[in-house]
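Quick start: what a row looks like.
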Amino acid sequence: MHKTIISLTAAVMLAGCTGGSNNSNNSTNEAANQETKTYNFLDAKEKTFDGFSVHWLKDNAEDKNFPFDLFGNIPESIRQEVNLPDDGIPSSMSAYLIKSNGKNILFDSGLGEKSGGQLIPQLQSYGVAPENIDYVYITHFHGDHIGGMLTPDGEKVFTNAEVYVSQLEKDSDLGKGEQAAKMIEKYGDKIHTFNFGDTLPEDVKAIKAIGHTPGHTVYQKGNVLIIGDLMHAFAIQVNHPEINANFDGDKDQAASTRKSILQYAKDNGLTMCGMHLPVPEK
């Protein structure tokens, strides 16, 4: 596997990965690489910002690669541009913990223990037990983001947490699905909904990022942006946001959202943290 193309160090993913192309393609790639350098991604598993810290929680036990066919017909020129390995596109199943003012904020809950999720030991490695989580902010209701909300026996995992999800996501078909419905029932009055643009506890802003799901949400705290499932194939989509995953419910809207959020992050110098980005090397 060509590890250099999936490194998040210094937020430069594709530098030097031209794959032996001709001079014309090299010029095109150099321009694309310069664009990549304008984006910031979390380049360490834990990092301190102004008044809070961010901690990457790797939920998948084994290496995670997405197969190419999950992204439609990717042009061969793009595959050569990023020099991807034959076994798929490097990714992860992740969540994030933010520690702020003595509060523990969890963004998504991963696959869940029943499906092999590693969230609880990951939290414990940072000295945080499930009952110590004060807030859970959910990006959307897919199973690899809410699977960790309930134990294998169907009980609450985060017994003291207030849980937030967008009103649009809660009202969608996903919100009425069996997995989400069970979670909503168990957490009861601990479930809170919001509208896009609202500011949530600990000064976290909820930003509209629909397309992947009807109520998909990006969260901003300070100069950090939790981008959820904005990208699944980071090595490709960071420079080709028009390419969608089969997981995206409304593909035209998902592509439009991907472009606008990337632009927003670049314009404001924000550090992005995604649930399917490759794992940082440090």
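That is the whole record. The chain has one domain: 3-274. The domain at 3-274 is CATH 3.60.15.10 (Metallo-beta-lactamase; Chain A).
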